[in-house]
Structure formats: structure tokens, C-alpha cells
Amino acid sequence: MADPNNSDLNALRIDRSKKFDDRPRSKVWKWLFLAVLLAVVVIAYFLLRNRVAPATKVKSTTVTYITGSASQASLVASGYVVAQRKAEVASKGTGRLKYLGFEEGDTVHTGQVIAELENDDIRAEVALAKANLMNAEADSLNAGRIYRRQQKLYDSSAVTKVALEDAETAYLRAKASVAAAQANVEAAEVNMENTIIRAPFSGTVLTKNADVGEVVAPFASSSSSKGSVVTLADMGSLEVEADVSEANIYKVFVGQKCNIVLDAYPDRTYAGEVKKIVPTADRARATVLTKVAFTNIDGRVLPEMSARVNFFPKEMDTTGQSASRTLVVDKEAITTRDDRKVVFRIVKDRVEMVPIAIGRQLGDMTEIDSGLSEGDRVVLSPPGKMATGDKIEVTP
Asked: Which CATH superfamily is domain 119-191 in?
């Protein structure tokens, strides 16, 4: 008969026949799966991060060829057409404008009346001054007659010397009164002339700055008054003021032949020559102002038009009719990386850094000696951190 106490002891005994490998492996497989999943995520991140990264928005430009005068020029600079004779025509008097005889585009001649202020009060002052002059002249005439009579009487010993001297004094006072009255007339006429606005030189009215009924003052002392009536310019004095870089000013000299191309008429070329190089530099922009006079000009040239000036070498013909072509790109596309001039060429939706060799500066364009081809699209003003392979989005 079995002992029940022995069966309980057998239940507590360790079964050494079971091996470790027979234990459940659910937790081991769980941690192994998590480790593999984490590795896949990390690898996928590094493989796909360029594709999912946001694109950099940039503007682009195209590499192109230029021909003719621009390709022959030793230097190209941009500027504006200005009139050397230009004036804000105003009155010397203050008053309400009652007459304005010209509008924008009208031609006036030296001394011609452009406008007139209300001047009825000054006209009355002129009339009063002239009346006072007539009165003074009458008094002077009478005093002169008295003086001459007294002189004859004194010669015949009919009057004393004191009477003669009194008559002489009265006559001199009358003459002085005439002079004072004449001066008053002239002053009133000057005040009258100050209300009449005349053209200081022959030219064309560019802008009309006041209308009939508005108050005109010499210095526009209040916000409701106008300082000038019209802006007048001598269209025969038009020239181009171009900003030339300090680094290239040695290529420019007085009398140098140029071609002028207006942005408004890119197919029309105007001959010109350097008139003056202003003997000072603009510190902020590192440029020197150069004035270029037109050799031939027509009515299409207007003040404040933007222009491009092609400066030619001394020995070259200025006809600009040359078959030579120059490869150029906008200078804003060129940047520096590791002391090299580079551009970022656009390839589909990515960029590629391309080292280049540059030549002349032709205004806003730079000559390309090597590294690019016609039709290549490059990034304008590339960011400082841009690198090959960066994703981009070209904006208008």
C-alpha cells in the first residue's frame, strides 16, 4: 500500500528530463521582431529622406548667347535717361492759381507765360503807384517853374537869396518825390510780375503739379499749397547717367564711343559718347557716375527711361554689326564655393553644382568662358546651403 505522504513529495520533485529549449519562446520572438522592424524603419528613413524632404523654392534663368554691339563691348552698364536742363517752375509770389496754359507734353519757349495767379489787388497797387507818380511829377513841374522865376527875380535883385534858396529846396524835394514815386511803381510792377509764371528756357512740360484754384507758394509752406506749377525739361539736353563699377572704371574715358539701347525699344540703337566721368564714387554701391551724350536722338527718347550703355574699345568700330556671339548668364546666378565660381544647374527637380570660368561683365550679364552651354537653366541667387542633389521647385 502506497504512502500518501510520498506522493505529495514526488509532486514537488524537479523533473530534470525537461530541457531548456522546450520552454515557450513567445517573448524572444517578440523582441526579435521589434529589433528587425526598427532596423527597417531606420534604413527606409535614410533611403527616402531626400524624396520626402520639402523642395526649396527658387527662381531660374537660362544661359544664352548675345550678339551685335553687346558682344563687342568692353563694358556694359545700366542707367537712366535724364535731362541736364530741368526745372520745377514756380512763382515768386503766393496766391491762388487762376490760369494755366499748358499740359504735359506741350512745348514752351523762353519767356512764354505758363500760368498766372490771382492779382487784382496787385494791379490796383500798380495803378495807385502810377497815380502817385503823376502827382509827384506835377508837383515837381510846378516847383521847377517857381524856382526858375525866383532865380530871375534874384538876378534883378527883386527877391532875397533866402527866397531863392527856399524855392530851390522845394524843387529838389519835388524831384525826390518823383524818384520815390517811380520806385514805388517799379516795386508794384515787380510784385505784379511775380504773379505771372514764365518759362525760364525753351522745353517740354513733363508734369503738371498744380491746377487752377489751388494755392501756389514759393516754398510750399503748408500742406495745402503747391511749390511748383509744372516740371519743364529741355529735351535737347537728354543724356544717359550710367553707374559703372569701380573695378571697371579704368575701361571708360571721355570721348569713348558707345551704343545706347533703351529698354523700351530693345531693337533700336542710339549712338553716343562719354561726355563726363563724375570725379567721385558712390561708397554704398561702389560705382562711379558716367554721363553719356546722345550723338543721334529722336522723339522716342524720354526722361527717366532705363537704358543700357555698351562701351566700345578705343580701336573698335561702333557699328555693332558683328557676327560674333558671346555666351552669358545673369550675374545673380553665379556664387562662390571653396574659392571657385559656380552655378547650380537645374536637372529635372534637382540641382547640380557646376564650376565655371567667367569673363567680362556685360551689365547685368556675365560672360561664360567654360562650364555651361546655351539653354542650360540655372538657379538665380542660390541659397548659401544649397548643394548638389537638393530638391527644388522653380517659381515664376
From this structure: Helix hairpin bin (1.10.287.470)
